[in-house]
Amino acid sequence: MLPRGASSMPPPPNPAPYFPPPRVTLPSGLEILRTFSGAVIFLEILFGTIVWILVASTQVPLPLLQGWVMFVAVTAWFLSIVFLSVFLFGYANRIAVNWNQADFIFHGATFVFYFGAFLLQAATTSLHHFPRKFNSTTQEMILSGREYNISIAASV
User: Which residues cross the membrane (predicted)?
Assistant: First the structure.
């Protein structure tokens, strides 16, 4: 007879052997730049810098829209540099994170934010033909011809 409160079933097995620790399949050092992920991060830094420069060079006729575009460009640029630095300096081997999943989530989130910024920048660019009324006698275009071309480049 079993003592009171005891069970005839054996205890469950330890789950640790069934879940191996995550492996880092992305290389460290300069070898990261030879992978698809490293190339995408490098391109994000390059194009983020270009968008940042182009949007900053306009007169920002709609601060709310272009402010978000600048926020996305600067934040994604900074986080891309941090993410690339983690692999360049070998910190990925010291931090126990599933880097494959983190890489996927990072690129997915960056894509969503850049796509939203693209839509807002394109909306700002599409207002080129609408006049802005300062008073009843004069009208000025929202974007000049130069700013219109810069906004198209930033949208692309």
Answer: 36-56, 68-92, 104-123
